[in-house]
Each structure stands twice: as C-alpha cells, then as structure tokens.
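User
New here, explain this?
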Amino acid sequence: MIESLLVANRGEIARRIIRTARRLGIRAIAVHSEADAGLPFVAEADEAVCVGPANPAQSYRNVEAILAAAKSTGAQAIHPGYGFLSENADFARTVEASGLIWVGPGADAITAMGDKINARNLMAAAGVPVAPGTTDPAADLDAAVAAAAEIGYPVMVKAAAGGGGMGMGVANDEDALRTEYDKVRSFAERMFGDGSVLIERYFPRVRHVEVQILGLADGRVVALGERECSVQRRNQKLVEESPSPAVSPELRERFLAAAVRAGEAVGYRNAGTVECLLVPRQRDFQGDGPGSEEFFFLEMNTRLQVEHPVTELVYGVDLVEEQLRVAAGLAPTFDPDALAPRGHAIELRVNAEDPKRFLPGPGVIKTWVEPTGEGVRVDSGYVEGNTVTPFYDSLMAKLIVSGATRAEAIDRARTAVAAFELAGPKNNLPFFAELLENAEFISGDYDTGIVTRMR
C-alpha cells in the first residue's frame, strides 16, 4: 500500500480523503491556500504546506507549487479529489513523470473523455447508446444550423471541452440557435481555451442517471450501481440518490453493462462515472411507478464524484480506499463478482447559497451543529468559526442519509435537515426541507425540471 499521500484539493473532499488515508495508516499531506489555512482538513493532515494565495490559479491549480510540496514532504502519491486538477491529463502525466503515483485514471483516458465529441464517437463505436448529434465540431454557425436541421429541434448547444453543467444552451428554433451558438462558443473559448461546439438533440423531459465504475488493477472494469442526479439547478446537482427510483432491474442491467463497455473502451483504471440521460415514458402508467424508454451517454467523469458517498453506503465500500488500492496495484477489498446493493441512500449538498435563487452567500459560520443518528453521515469542510470565502465552490457539507428503503431514507433526511443547525452564511437547508415534502420527489417520478417547477 502507498505509505504517504498528498491531497491536491481542499474542503470536504480533502478532509474525506485524509480520513481514509489515516485509517489505513498512510501519512496524509495537505496543501492549502492562504485563505484556507484555518480549515479542518489542514489541521487533520499529518503535514500541511501552503501553496499560494486564495486565487486557485496561484494555489490549487499551481502545478509547480503542488509538485514542490510533494517533493519537500516526501509524498509517494497524489490524490487530486474532484475539480481543480483532477481531470487535467497534463498534470497526471507530470505527476507520473516525476516518479509519483497518480491516484486516478491514466492520462490517455482523461484525454479521450475530456472532449465531448471525441467521447461520443468512442462510446458509439463501443456500442454505448448516444443521443443524435454531431460527430465533429460545428465549425461555424452555418454548420450548426445545418446539423440542427438534420437532428431536429429542440437542440442542446454544448462546449465540447465543458463539464460540470457549464457551457450549454438550449435552442428551440433557428433564431435561438444563432444566439446560443455564439454565446456558448464565446464562453467555451474564455473558460476552456477551446471554442469547439457540439450540437445534440435536447429532450425537454429527462432524468440524469449515472453509473459508478471502477477499473481494477488486473484490468477488469466493474460497475457499482447507478445514482439518480436529477434534482439540479442551472444544470448542477443538488441531490443524488441510489438506487434510482426510475431504474427497473432490467434497465439497471443494461445501464451497468453499457457503463462497463464505456470503461473498457478506454482501458479505464481507478474510479470514474459514466453519466447518462434517461428519457422517461409519458405519465400514463397506472400506479406501477416511473418507467423509462431509452438512455443515452452524456459524458464520463474521470475522477471521484462529489456524490460518491451514496454508492459507498449502498454497496458497503470505501471508494477512496479502492482508489488507493488500484493505484498501488492491489486487488479490491470486495468480490467483483458478488456486488449487490443494500437499502437506499440520499445525498444533499449543503451549499452557502440563497435557498430561493441559489446565488452564493459566503460568510462567517456562527453556528454549526451537524445532525447525528442512525443512517446519518456528514462529510463537511467547515466547522463553527470558519469563513466560507467567495474564492471557491459554495459547497460546505454533504448530508448523506441511508435506510432500508427509500421511504425510510427520506424520513431520516427530513429529521437530519431539521436538526442541522447552521447560521452565518446563507444556506439551502430550507430548500431541502421543502423538497423532502414535495409530492413529485416523494413519488420518485421526477426529472431535471423539478427545481424549476418548485420555484
């Protein structure tokens, strides 16, 4: 096993990785910005190094500073968490070229999946369903108009190099396409340094379902169930649950098989997520529960996901430990041929944001009391007295609940949300209290428009 691990991230994910590292007897090394010096992950690491000022480009994305910290502390491996440098293929190559172990997929897999058009084409070749769309970037507006006419409106206009719900727009007709194309292309050039644009069929009513995969050290790719991620605002997730209430056993089998094929197509190693769009049936069933007709590959996230805890609770595994074992060339702690889910888990992303408009609301945390109880887990990045700054993502904590059934998990989530005492920054706990009483969410028959309908 790896003996020393540098965590190239911050907040709750750094704290969560450090927790597993220390349980395994691995020396945990944190890097932090000047703004984060007082956060719990810094104090809980065995060693910590300041890598720059608050600006992420000068700290958490500062490759030279992070590699210097690894060298000065004698780190053997680097875990990038999610965000920042986690899906940067050049960083992964540089880490390995420096003689360090990269806790993540190979750089070639990151590169292959980092471009949405290339990823779509690879998946189609591997027999993974993809939505109707362009196989090459729409080079100009005329090409985009021609592609949309062939695909059929409405269409989604996407930045090929985008991710995390950024760089997307919907066009219901040609006039809207002309506006969205210029807007997305400009955004993509500014944010990603790549203005390539993909045109894809847009489905007005759709669910967002993803599959957790793990590429093992022996070359096999296994799937650890699916997660429902349809509660979103501005195409960014707020709530995730596993198993999905929309996925039947037959559909699950197809989902997992497609996800494994996706991983195998790029020789995937370590943890990753295959994200899909699930197009539901019309609401014409008679009390049989939500159904579905077809699903399409959306993208592959070549890293650990924010929502990985729901999979951990349902499958009884520590995904960070499994990542470390794969990186070290070791077998998993579980039997890949005997994976079976138990119960239900739900994750709520507790953000420093207005619960109505979801606009950021940083500030000093004056009260912070985490809920406890059976089936309740909190992965947090802050404690009372810390300051949530405007420099980073607004995520403060993840409230994860589990139960024998979905109904029990929802009931425990209600109790936990009510018991979470948080004052100072604006927060979205009131939104979760509302969601957990929402008839559409409770039924399980919801889609990505649920938050808009609630507002």
User: Anything to note?
Assistant: Residues 283-291 have pLDDT under 50 and may be disordered.
